[in-house]
Each structure stands twice: as C-alpha cells, then as structure tokens.
Amino acid sequence: DVVMTQSPLSLPVTLGQPASISCRSSQSLVSGDGSTYLNWFQQRPGQSPRRLIYQVSNRESGVPDRFSGSGSGTDFTLKISRVEAEDVGVYHCMQGSHWPWTFGQGTKVEIK
Amino acid sequence: EVQLVESGGGLVQPGGSLRLSCAASGFTFSAYWMSWVRQAPGKGLEWVANMNLDGNEKYYVDSVKGRFTISRDNAKNSLYLQMNSLRVEDTAVYYCSRRRGDIWGQGTVVTVSS
Questions:
Q1: 4-33 in B: which are within 8 Å (CB) of A?
Q2: Which residue of B has its CA nearest to A101?
Q3: Cα(A60)–Cα(A85) distance, integer angstroms
Q4: Contact A96 B101 (CB under 8 A)
Q5: Which are the contacts of A62, defined by CB distance < 8 A and separation ≥ 6?
Q6: I want to staple A53 with a disulfide (CB 3.0 to 4.6 A). Which of A69, B28, B29, B90 is the partner?
C-alpha cells in the first residue's frame, strides 16, 4: 500500500499568518492514466471531511483562494496564505492513484 | 442539492452483522463510482471499499476483505455496505463518499462491543 506521511502533525498558527503542510508518498502518485490523484481535505471539529483541493492543485468550487496546493511525484504541499479562525481543524492528504486509496495521518491546525 | 445520507449504524457484538445504507440525491447516482470510508474514534481516515458504476468492479482494503460487501441499487439511488464478522477494531464513523471524495455524507456510527 502507498504510505502517505504528513508533517507537521500539529500546527499552531497566528491569525493572518501563512501555514504550510507537507505530504509525502512512498511511491509516485502518477497513475496509469497520467493523472496525479492527490487530494486535500479539511475536517472541522465534529464535521465530515470536505475536499479542498483535487489532483494536486485544483481548488473545489467555493473554496477560498487563500488555499493552494502544489507538488508532483511524491512530494506535495498545502498552503494557507493567511489563516483565519474558520480554518481550525484537521487537514488530510489522500492519494487516489493506487488502490487501496490511502490518507495521511492528518495535521491539526489550531490558533495560537 | 447534492446530498448523501447514511443510516444503519448501531451497537453490535463482536461477530455480529450490520448493513449500512447511503441514500443519494441531487445528482445522477448511476454515473459515479461510490465508496465507503471510515474513521475510528480519534483516528485518521481509512478508505474501506469502492465500486464502479454498474457494480461489476469492487475493491476492498485488506482488513475487511471477505467480511464486508459493497453493493448498489441504481434504481433506488442507494449504496450499501454489508458488514459481517464484525470486530472491535471496526468501531468507527462510516461515511459514504462520491468518487475520490468530492461529496461526503454526515456519517453513521458503528460500535462493536460486548
């Protein structure tokens, strides 16, 4: 199985400051069809996950443009340009290129 | 409104069975791969099973193979997860999800305990 490793696992941030989460995979996420199925999800306390970013860098409709995704191959990053109070929660990376699809451990974002 | 609503969770003894259901609305259910994902208490997410449009391709994570069966009824816009031989470690919130997670339900809680 593809192992997804996120860092850091805990991220205290100051409101208005940037934040960055790294996600590394144990093998390339380029799938057989040439696409890279690396997604980012936000899970606010007590809620279901919500997909923010799909295929590395595509923002879902309605997701603020302060969220951005980048990377390739085995190394990926989610960035929040200016953290707001509503961004508190756990962020999960997920690969959908190789079955079984797998998630990272999750990164807990909290306000300092 | 695009929506997924899970039901069927509950408390069951080890070795028991449960059948989860997911009712879809607001989109053409038969046009999408569908999945079940679970989250154990205080833990991360785990993709459990998924299936293709007409149900002739199914994939399972190793930990549930031979015990869980994913199925769908496109006429009823519904996805199912039959869970047999349940173990304590199957305790989790079970989510229904579309494709690679573009839409999620609110989840249903499964507790396996004696």
A1: none
A2: B47
A3: 20
A4: yes
A5: none
A6: A69
- Picking from B87, B98, B93, the residue whose alpha carbon sits closest to that of residue B108 is B93
Type of residue at A29: L
Q: Using CA coordinates, name the residue in chain B closest to A100.
A: B61
Cβ <8 Å between A106 and B45: yes
Contact assessment for residue A11 and residue A19, using Cβ atoms and an 8 Å cutoff: yes
Per-residue model confidence as pLDDT tens for chain B (114 residues): 999 999 999 999 999 999 999 999 999 999 999 999 999 999 999 999 999 998 899 999 999 999 999 999 999 999 999 999 999 999 999 999 999 999 999 999 999 999
pLDDT tens-digit readout, A24-83: 999 999 999 999 999 999 999 999 999 999 999 999 999 999 999 999 999 999 999 999
**B31 touches B53 (CB < 8 A):** yes
pLDDT at B90: 98
Among A41, A89, A35, A65, CA closest to B103: A41
How far apart (Å, rounded) are the C-alpha atoms in residues B67 and B18?
11
Q: B76 to chain A nearest CA, in Å?
A: 24
* A53: its two tokens: 């970013």
Q: In chain B, what residues touch A23 (CB-CB under 8 Å)?
A: none
Structure tokens at A109: 């974002």
Classify residue A97 as exposed, middle or buried by CB count within 10 Å of its CB (0-12, 13-18, 19+). Answer: buried
